[in-house]
Specification:
- This is DNA-binding response regulator.
- With 227 residues, this protein is of the alpha/beta class.
- Helix content is 46%, strand content 12%.
- The protein has 10 helices and 5 strands.
- It has a 5-stranded parallel sheet, with helices on both faces.
- Strand 4, helix 4 and strand 5 form a beta-alpha-beta unit.
- The longest helix is centred in the last third of the chain and has 15 residues.
- It is globular, with a radius of gyration of 18 Å.
- The N and C termini lie far apart (39 Å).
- About 3% of the residues have low confidence.
Length: 227
């Protein structure tokens, strides 16, 4: 299967670089480019990409609003692409807003080519990108903006989780893969997949990225608490 990618960035040189990297792969094809969020929305509707590689800061409609409209405002039954947000560390404060808007993860603009390609494949397959080291640094930087367990009561839906599911949620928030969680809990990876599915279903979450944000926002895990 060929993965169709839409490149969204207001810097033509960056778009050209990304295109060269992606089109060197036999299973990836760039179906279009956009220099702002408004054009990205139009291109998404017209070209039906599988993955949108989305910059955040752009003239007019920014990447956050474009992501929200592409992912969350799609008509029932309509094709909904997955969105990977591009960022630099000086724009950290926008990341959680992008994830809330419906992005499936985020990458740094200086990501190595092989990691960029793999991230697109992972997202296209329906998973989400949660890089543990980057997630920690981002969330630690704006820790003051996140409520602690004492500032905000745990949502009622979290109480639907079993103790083991809560444990799995905390490990997801640490950026651990299913295999790593299985090793940590000394259970099979199949069992972990079942727990992860139950967590997402009970909490009404789309993917692991949303689970990370919820875990931090509700105080189940706090910035700086991960070694």
């Amino acid at each position: 299967m060929t993965i169709r990618v839409l490149l969204v960035d207001d810097q033509p040189l960056l778009r050209t670089g990304f295109r060269l990297i992606l089109e060197a792969e036999p299973d990836l094809t760039v179906v279009g480019e956009a220099g702002n969020g408004s054009t990205a929305m139009d291109q998404s509707r017209a070209l039906l990409p599988d993955v949108v590689l989305m910059d955040i800061r752009m003239p007019g409609v920014d990447g956050i609003d474009a992501t929200r409209r592409i992912v969350r405002d799609a008509a029932p039954g309509a094709h909904v692409p997955r969105v990977l947000v591009l960022t630099t560390f000086d724009l950290d404060e926008y990341i959680v807003e992008a994830l809330r808007a419906g992005a499936s993860g985020f990458l740094l603009k200086d990501v190595p080519p092989d990691e960029l390609v793999q991230a697109i494949r992972v997202v296209a397959a329906g998973d989400a990108i949660v890089a543990p080291s980057v997630t920690r640094r981002l969330l630690d930087k704006f820790a003051a903006r996140l409520p602690s367990a004492h500032q905000q009561a745990t949502p009622a839906r979290v109480h639907r989780l079993t103790e083991r599911e809560l444990e799995v949620l905390r490990l997801i928030a640490r950026g651990m893969s299913n295999a790593e969680i299985a090793a940590e809990l000394v259970v099979s990876e199949t069992t972990v997949k079942t727990h992860v599915g139950n967590v997402l279903t009970k909490l009404g979450l789309r993917d692991r990225v949303q689970a990370v944000v919820l875990a931090y926002e509700t105080g189940l895990i706090t910035p700086g608490a991960i070694p």
